[in-house]
Amino acid sequence: MKISIIGTGYVGLVSGVCLAAKGHDVTCVDVLQDKVDRINRGEAPIHEAGLDDLLKSLIGQKLRATTAFEDAVINSELSLIAVGTPFDGEHIDLTYIRAVAKQIGTVLKRKAGYHMVVVKSTVVPGTTEEVVLPILEAASGKKAGVDFGVGMNPEFLKEGEAIQDFMEPDRIVLGGIDERSINTLEAVYAAFNETHKIRTSPRTAEMIKYTANSLLATLISFSNEIGNLCSLIKDVDVVEVMRGVHLDKRFAPVMPDGSRIFPSSLTYLAAGCGFGGSCFPKDVKALIQYGKEKGSSMLILDSVINVNREQPYRMIELLRQHHPDLSGLKVALLGLAFKPGTDDIRESASITVVRELIVRGAVVTAFDPVAQQETEITLGKDVIQYAYTVEDCIREAQAILLMTSWAQFEELPQQLAGLPQQPLLIDGRRMIPKDSVAVYEGIGLTRG
Fold first, then answer.
1. Is 273 among the catalytic positions?
2. Residue whose C-alpha is closest to residue 391's, from 334, 320, 319
3. Contact status, residue 92 vs residue 86, Cβ threshold 8 Å
4. 176-195 pLDDT, tens per residue?
5. Which of 405, 407, 397 is nearest to 428 (CA)?
């Protein structure tokens, strides 16, 4: 199928590359010529495992990028809308969604034949049918369900694992205004013949996305709240508590041979210094506001956000238990991205902690394998110092704050053992064995 994808951000580009890999003829559209040129050179503008190699193998064959919006839509059978939907504190901003819908509608006015328009961006229930569809009809002068189809196809991509998530999905949600729309959308995913597909309405598809992200965020904040309580109870460690919880057969089924299946969802039932990124904080807040507008008090989700807002400051509290005055204290901060596998620092707990450390006068040196450039753009180059190896970052540190669970940080005990003075290590992800370093503190831990 010939597909045009509007927007070459995280969702748009990953979707475009993966659909091309499945045999579709894909054109990615963006307004930025520099970005389009980079993609056409086979250079991914975002950091995502496996994306560079896949992009290079497909560009110029099944995949291309362009700024020519009209040509892309005219010469395709289906258009995916994958533009940003930022949250302004009260509503998701549909400016880009509205603009793209109007552009597509204007092109459809001059295009013969049936065309399918699919919203891939995360939007609250009702947006596809109550916002996008009327704009398409008004701009095209045509009738949805007759002259063109409309659908909603949410993404479930984890940053750092997006390629695998797309190519090996656990479910595909197909929301459409009628059977023809759903059938057309299902044809896009014909190659995924072993994946469970949900055929539903656009509103339900939109709600599935928000519910999925809100549930995962709730598990994290629940775990963090339990961790905060554990830190106040003598000789209790949240890691051991959660290990006991994970062994419930409803979470970790026992196989006939006695072995266990530990699903990846258990990683959300672990205490840490808070969740971040472009999805969880924005989507939970948007669903809270949407619920309130519908007359439903979203009490649990309100608490999810409140717990997460305060969680990064637990790192500062643990630090001040050892160093009440942070002025002039040399602090090494390991990890700037909100999670490993990405350079995304949006809503990252690390950025909150860095800003608080600076306010309190600490001297901060940070290391992250891929997110330092993004941090420099956000914070400025002279606000903190940057190291280019873990060893350089921790060499003169009086305290180390481990913020992101990059696999290379697992070697920290051995690296610390070689230092003449042993700094305090505060483990914000509980990835280092607590007895493997000389001076250890961690989220959800009390020593008695």
1. no
2. 334
3. yes
4. 999 999 999 999 999 999 99
5. 405
Q: Where are the extended beta strands (E) located within 122-171?
A: 148-152
Return d(Cα 362, Cα 327) in angstroms, integer: 5
Angle between helices 133-140 and 95-110 (to 10 degrees): 40
Is 382's pLDDT higher than 90? no
Which structural domains are found in the chain, ordered by start? 2-198 (3.40.50.720), 212-308 (3.40.50.720), 310-442 (3.40.50.720)
Q: Are 13 and 51 within 8 A, CB to CB? A: yes
Cα 357 to Cα 353: distance, rounded to the nearest angstrom: 6
Question: What pLDDT was estimated at residue 127?
Answer: 98
Number of residues that make up the chain: 448
Give the residue from 389, 385, 390, 414 showing the smallest Cα distance to 400: 390
* Distance linking the first and last C-alpha atoms of the chain: 63
Residues 330-353 pLDDT 10s: 999 999 999 999 999 999 999 999
Residue with tokens 């997460």: 308
- Name the active-site residue from 28, 273, 279, 393: 279
CB 227 within 8 A of CB 238: yes
Distance CA 176, CA 355 (A): 45
User: What confidence category does residue 448 fall into, taking pLDDT thresholds of 50, 70 and 90?
Assistant: low
Cα–Cα dist 204/194, whole Å: 22
Spatial distance between the Cα atoms of 382 and 363, rounded to a whole number of angstroms: 11
CA–CA distance, 203 with 147 (Å, rounded to integer): 21
Residue in this structure with the two tokens 């229930």, named with its chain if needed: 125
Give me the residue label for tokens 């995360």: 122
CA distances from 153 to 171, 183, 304 (A): 11, 12, 26
Residue type, 189: Y
330-334 vs 363-367, strand pairing mode: parallel
